[in-house]
What we know:
Elements: E1 2-5, H1 12-22, E2 28-31, H2 42-51, H3 57-62, E3 65-68, H4 73-87, E4 92-98, E5 107-113, H5 115-123
Parallel strand pairs: 1-2, 1-3, 3-4
Antiparallel strand pairs: 4-5
Helix pairs in contact: 2-4
Amino acid sequence: MILLNFTHPLTGGQVARLEALTGQPVERVVQIAVQFDPARPFAGQVVQLADAAGLTVQQWQSKAILVVPPALNFIAVALLAELHGRMGYFAAHLRTRLVEGSTPPRYEVAEIMNLQEIRLTARATR
């Protein structure tokens, strides 16, 4: 699987944990720095952000991709829409959480959120 990380770098332990959760090896981690100009519209900037992943059209549509979203909610939702357009479905997302009582702050893998499954379940309530 390809891990697109739009936030802090993951540790070897975090990558091992997500491999255990998914049952798939991480083929490649793509670390993408997120720096947006708040004075400019986010739509164009999010296209550049997705382009920075360096994936081909075929890879977007055929590879197993897991996303660690950026922390800023406005960038995250715009990126979600951009990736859905490129992939044709909602990518699974990795959620991390603060390890309680850790000093300095440390984060652990909390869960893999299958957004496509969440969407399909929600459709049943329409």
